[in-house]
Structure formats: C-alpha cells, structure tokens
C-alpha cells in the first residue's frame, strides 16, 4: 500500500472518531508541514502554526469529503494561518531570544543567509518558492494548495526571483 | 542562460538545504502534543446548558435590535400640541387670520363697506 493511500485510510479512520489514527496522521504530515510553515514564517513560529492548524483540522475533519486530499487541505490551512500569523504575532519574535540554546536549528548555509534573504520576499512569494523549489510541484499543484491560478503562481515566482537577484547583486563585492 | 547560470540558482540550492532540515520537535512528540490538546479541548467543550444560555442571550439581543430598528423606521411620534398656544377667540366677520406657524398669527382686518360708494361725482 502506498504512503498516500495509507494516509487516506488513516484520515478516514480519524474522521470516524479514531484519536489514535489522527495521531498517526499528525506524525505522517508533521515534517512536511513544519518545513512549509518555516519557509513562510521562519524557525521561531513554524511549529506553533502547524500545531494550531492540526488542532483545527481535527475539529474540521468531518467536513473533509475527500480523505485523499488531506495533505493539500491541511497545507492550504497552514498557508492561510501563516498569512494571518505574522500580523498579530510580532511580539513572539521577542521570545526567540529567550529560548534555550539548541531549540533553533542551525543554518546549514553559513555563506548565504537564507532566512535574511527570505525576509525580502512577501509571504506568498515564499510559499510559492517553497512548493516549487523544495517540493518540486508544478504551477497547477502549487495553485491548488495556495488557491491561486497558475499564472498568478508564475507571477509570484518571477517577482520573487527578481527581488532576490537584486539583493544578491547588491551583496556582491 | 541555463538554470545553473541564473543568479538565484545558488540561493535556491541553499534554500533547498535550509528548508529540508528536520523540525526541532520530532513527529511522534508533536503527535502526542496535538493529541493532548485535542483531549483537553474536548474535556472543556461547552455543554448544552452553556449553549442554552448563549442562545437566550442571542435571542434577547435580536429582540432589542429588532425593536430598535422598528422604532427608527416608524419615525418619531407626532409632536404634542403645546398648551401655550391659545385658541383664538371668536372673531368678527371682517378679520382674517393667517398662521405663520403654530404660535404666530397675522391678523388682517378688512375695512367695512360704507354706504358712500365714493368715487368721483
């Protein structure tokens, strides 16, 4: 049985009220969702965003008709929550300084400050770049997750690359 | 220009490596946390008594708003006549009254017709 089919059967069981099955669903999706959220809101907030989303997804699960679409459905929820999250959670940035050492992952690219470069992009541009560059999705697939037309996805990606090119050019000696 | 020549290709390679790092919290720990929060939220879910109270408050609010809207739409009630306005006494036939407003009468007195027709002889 494929991983996707396995996830769908777990989602169906969870929808029928099986808490354990939902635990397995969370385990299966956690890494992908945290990575996606991290590209949009950064290291400090990503896990909080995803945890909130998975909690709401549990409550909204009876409304999900197609269990096969759970991953895309919850990814859309994470994207929307990320868009809202930044607006009112500015104070959470303060907490990062008080977190114990080792809780924030170390940047594997010390030569290129990825997080700082991402700060130059809008949240939508970051989401499009993540799904395209990291997940390797097509424009139609990205559009389905972000509720955008493929043309809009391309426009966001083009603008993101233009912004990055400009920043990288400025940084060159 | 190939993909490797593009100025952002170095960024995209770095971004891919940065984004693919494992989350700080392992998936099994996260699943337990979410499960605990689901348990806690279902334990503290409001019971029917609370819903009845909320429904009663909502109905009360709807009634207040509806009656307010009805009053507003029907307009203000007609003004009560002021007791200060005096009813004019019975007037002779040659007096005409025009009311400029509720309290300001203007009297016109018509000159009585005399027996002398006047005019030139």
In short:
The complex is a heterodimer of chains A (173) and B (121). With 173 residues, chain A is mainly alpha-helical. Chain A has 9 helices and no strands.
3D structure, described in words:
- The complex is a heterodimer of chains A (173) and B (121).
- Residues 92-106 of chain A have low confidence and may be disordered.
- With 173 residues, chain A is mostly helical.
- Chain A is elongated.
- Chain A is built from nine helices and no strands.
- Chain A has two domains: 1-93, RNA polymerase sigma factor, region 2, helix turn helix motif (Rna Polymerase Sigma Factor, Chain: A), CATH 1.10.1740; 110-173, Arc Repressor Mutant, subunit A, CATH 1.10.10.10.
- Chain A has helices at residues 3-15, 19-41, 43-60, 70-88, 92-96, 114-118, 123-134, 139-146, 150-171.
- In chain A, helix 2 (19-41) packs across helix 7, helix 7 packs across helix 9 and helix 8 (139-146) crosses helix 9 (150-171).
- Chain B has 121 residues and is mostly helical.
- Chain B has a domain at 8-45.
- Chain B has three helices and two strands.
- Chain B has helices spanning 9-19, 27-43, 48-74, and strands at 95-101, 104-109.
- Chain B has a two-stranded antiparallel ribbon with strand order 1-2.
- The termini of chain B are far apart.
- The relative contact order of chain B is 0.04.
Describe the secondary-structure layout.
The complex is a heterodimer of chains A (173) and B (121).
Chain A: H1 3-15, H2 19-41, H3 43-60, H4 70-88, H5 92-96, H6 114-118, H7 123-134, H8 139-146, H9 150-171
Helix pairs in contact in A: 1-2, 2-3, 2-4, 2-7, 3-4, 7-9, 8-9
Chain B: H1 9-19, H2 27-43, H3 48-74, E1 95-101, E2 104-109
Antiparallel strand pairs in B: 1-2
């Amino acid at each position: 049985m494929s991983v996707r089919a396995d996830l769908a059967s777990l989602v169906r069981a969870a929808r029928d009220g099986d808490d354990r099955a939902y635990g397995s669903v969370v385990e299966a999706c956690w890494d992908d969702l945290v990575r996606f959220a991290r590209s949009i809101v950064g290291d400090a907030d990503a896990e909080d965003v995803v945890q909130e989303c998975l909690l709401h997804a549990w409550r909204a699960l009876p409304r999900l008709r197609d269990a096969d679409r759970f991953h895309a459905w919850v990814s859309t929820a994470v994207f929307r929550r990320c868009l809202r999250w930044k607006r009112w959670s500015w104070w959470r940035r303060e907490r990062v300084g008080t977190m114990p050492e080792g809780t924030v992952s170390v940047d594997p690219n010390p030569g290129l400050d990825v997080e700082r470069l991402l700060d130059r992009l809008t949240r939508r541009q970051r989401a499009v770049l993540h799904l395209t560059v990291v997940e390797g999705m097509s424009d139609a697939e990205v559009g389905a997750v972000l509720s955008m037309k493929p043309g809009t996805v391309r426009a966001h990606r083009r603008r993101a690359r233009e912004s990055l090119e400009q920043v990288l050019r400025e940084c060159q000696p | 220009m190939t993909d490797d020549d593009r100025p952002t290709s170095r960024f995209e390679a770095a971004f891919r490596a940065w984004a693919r790092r494992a989350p700080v919290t392992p998936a099994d720990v996260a699943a337990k946390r979410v499960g605990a929060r689901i348990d806690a939220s279902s334990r503290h879910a409001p019971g029917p008594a609370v819903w009845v109270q909320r429904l009663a408050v909502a109905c009360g609010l709807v009634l207040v708003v509806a009656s307010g809207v009805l009053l507003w739409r029907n307009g203000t009630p007609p003004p009560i006549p002021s007791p200060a306005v005096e009813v004019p006494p019975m007037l002779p036939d040659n007096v005409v009254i025009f009311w400029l407003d509720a309290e300001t009468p203007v009297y016109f007195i018509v000159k009585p017709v005399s027996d002398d027709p006047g005019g030139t002889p």
